[in-house]
Design brief:
mainly alpha, 2 domains, 53% helix, 9 helices
């Protein structure tokens, strides 16, 4: 796999999030760490699949950093994990983000505003213009969105969760 994707000069930050940082950050955003119901071994396994086994550094120097975290398999694991965690509207943190957007909105929300707010919730992160345009195009599928009138689990909330999921799958989110 070509790692030029992660070496771009336009990257806001100079390093890639380590697997543990990515997993814990996604779980916290999704609100999945509020109670000790998640098996810690499952969480540790997710980081291991991405290349960072807890208490298992590859050498006495510790873990590598930067683009060493990214190879074909690890990238798929990273994107799938973040997408699954942040795209599930049943997760309390995701529901809280959606409800927060609804509380802040006054009437209809434009697709552009929705994308900007979702990006802000994740970090804030800045995505390249072509990525932002793609996210806006997806949000435009429903036109202006009335978040205040949405109900738990409806099509509007699923659209917002999908925008969050896709935003978290971007290169900009993977960078620390």
């Amino acid at each position: 796999m070509n790692c030029e994707y992660f070496k771009s000069e336009s990257a806001r930050f100079a390093r890639v999030k380590g697997p543990v940082e990515l997993v814990i950050g996604a779980l916290r955003l999704a609100g999945m760490c509020q109670e000790p119901t998640i098996e810690i071994n499952d969480i540790a396994s997710q980081a291991f699949y991405m290349g960072q086994g807890l208490l298992q550094p590859p050498t006495v120097e510790g873990w590598h950093e930067g683009v060493e975290w990214i190879d074909s398999g690890a990238l798929v694991e990273r994107v799938n994990f973040v997408s699954k965690s942040l795209g599930d509207i049943n997760n309390p943190g995701v529901q809280s983000m959606i409800n927060g957007l609804a509380d802040e909105s006054e009437g209809l929300v434009s697709p552009e505003s929705l994308v900007d707010e979702c990006l802000e919730l994740l970090g804030p992160i800045e995505v390249p213009e072509d990525t932002r345009k793609t996210l806006v195009d997806i949000a435009t599928s429903r036109g202006d969105i009335d978040l205040a009138a949405s109900k738990t689990g409806d099509e509007t909330q699923q659209l917002v969760a999908n925008i969050i999921r896709l935003s978290a799958s971007t290169r900009s989110y993977q960078m620390a």
